[in-house]
Amino acid sequence: GGLEKAQEKEGPFVRTRLVGLGRGRRSAAMKETPLSNCEKRFLLRAIEERKRLDGRQSYDYRNIRISFGTDYGCCIVELGKTRVLGQVSCELVSPKPNRATEGILFFNLELSPMASPAFEPGRQSELLVKLNRLLEKCLRNSKCIDTESLCVVAGEKVWQIRVDLHLLNHSGNIIDAASIAAIVALCHFRRPDVSVQGEEVTLYTPEERDPVPLSIHHMPICVSFAFFQQGTYLLVDPSEQEERVMDGLLVIAMNKHREICTIQSSGGIMLLKDQVLVCSKIAGVKVAEITELIQKALVNDQKVRKEGGKFGFAESVPNQRITAFKIEQAPIDTEDVQEQAEEIIAKASPPSEVLANPVLWAPGTAQIGEGVENSWGDFEESEKEEEEIAEEKSPTTENKTVETGDMSTGTKNKKDETIVLSDSEEEDVIILEPEGTLKNRAKTSYKQDVASKKPGSKKKRKSFSLKKH
Fold first, then answer.
1. What pLDDT is recorded for position 433?
2. pLDDT digits (tens, 9 = 90+) for 429-463
């Protein structure tokens, strides 16, 4: 009553404040990242020009993909990037007193922070309550499942069917993806078989008796319509960004026989009769397409299970991706291999001439192929030049070159092409030690080497010639 009086006094201002209050509660509870004014204007301008960010037309749905788990009653439905996991379980319980011969249906949708950082764990937001109520209206109140077939013993034992839906990723239009996942999981589910003898109820395992599918009369599916600019523009299957700037939402639950199971409007916009009729016609077409897709997916899964093929979420991952478990081997035709090889050889250019016989340059050496002559020169001549250069250098310059860290004793000849390596055996060994000890050891070794070279160069020649032979 107080709300009505305030509306009479202030007119449309109260309505504007109420809408703002609702959005404020939602943003405070869900912590969603707000859109900037530029983003809102961009989205609305694109919708006015009949364009959408993902390239769809106004009445187009996103791609729907259905995959089944290893167990019966488990499925994942992907509507674009919105993903919902559905799992059905059953239990024998006592019936309700006022409905002694009917089974019990229970639906539960969870919005976890894994789907979106906007969702808080362990807290029922207004959006979650609204979605759960809409699912119950769509599936339970439409009598899509024969609950009387779930009765085992009247007044004592009935089946309780529980449908758990988990939102894995939120990218807009949760209710459509959740309704598809729920009906697909119910159609795929198999309950254990039971037998009643007197007062004794026997429950059979799947190995003893085949599980029994549920009795489903029809398949209601929700179709969402987003309205913009007070109902001027209409979009089917809104994305998350489009949901943030929309003025109102109309959800129609319908089966393939064009029977409306439930209809719900939210957002506070006034819709005309013609707009609702247009939406119902569009929903009829979309529901027929989705129902056909669901039936094909169920038939394919049942066929794979009967043939003993591989099934489950792991097998539904597409190949040729990083997440693929294996890549199927492509068949290779080996019938015309010889002919193809002859054609390739005929088209190819002839090979270049290669020396088949090795060329012996000296005893113990050989050259195979098109090598070039050794450019290092004669060891005897290079050794003479090294000795002459070593004698010309003074000890002071030798110490300076060692201190700068140049550990090599080789020098360049006059042509700057021949690099002479000393035959000292101490420099062939590399020992990793601190820099101080390394410099000291290099100094001592270098002095010993110079001292050995000055008095007896003839002895050195003889030792080298022995090593060479």
1. 53
2. 555 555 555 555 555 555 555 455 544 444 444 44
| Strand bridging mode 212-213 / 260-266 | unpaired
What are the backbone angles phi and psi of residue 130, rounded to the nearest 5°? -65, -40
Tokens matching residue 418: 């021949």
- First-to-last alpha carbon distance for the chain, in angstroms, is 118
Q: Check whether 428 has a pLDDT greater than 80.
A: no
Residue with tokens 């016609």: 281
Could you list the beta-strand ranges (E) of 337-438: none
Which of helix, strand or coil describes residue 68? strand
The number of helix segments (H) and strand segments (E) in the chain equals 12, 14
Burial of 292 (0-12, 13-18, 19+ CB in 10 A): exposed
Q: pLDDT tens across 285-298, in order?
A: 999 999 999 999 99
Cα 278 to Cα 273, 282, 430: the distances in Å are 9, 6, 87
Degrees (nearest 5) of the Cα angle 287, 280, 262?
A: 80
Is the pLDDT reported for residue 229 higher than 80?
yes
Alpha-carbon distance 151 to 158, whole Å?
4
Q: How far apart are CA 254 and CA 222, in angstroms?
A: 7
Inform me whether the pLDDT recorded for 410 exceeds 60: no
Mean pLDDT over residues 252-263, rounded? 92
Beta strands in 188-337 (DSSP E): 190-191, 194-197, 200-203, 212-213, 221-228, 233-236, 248-254, 260-266
Give the separation between CA 224 and CA 49, rounded to whole angstroms.
21
Taking a C-beta distance cutoff of 8 angstroms, is the pair 363, 353 a contact?
Answer: no
What residues contact 304, with CB distance under 8 A and at least 6 apart? 310, 311
pTM above 0.85, yes or no: no
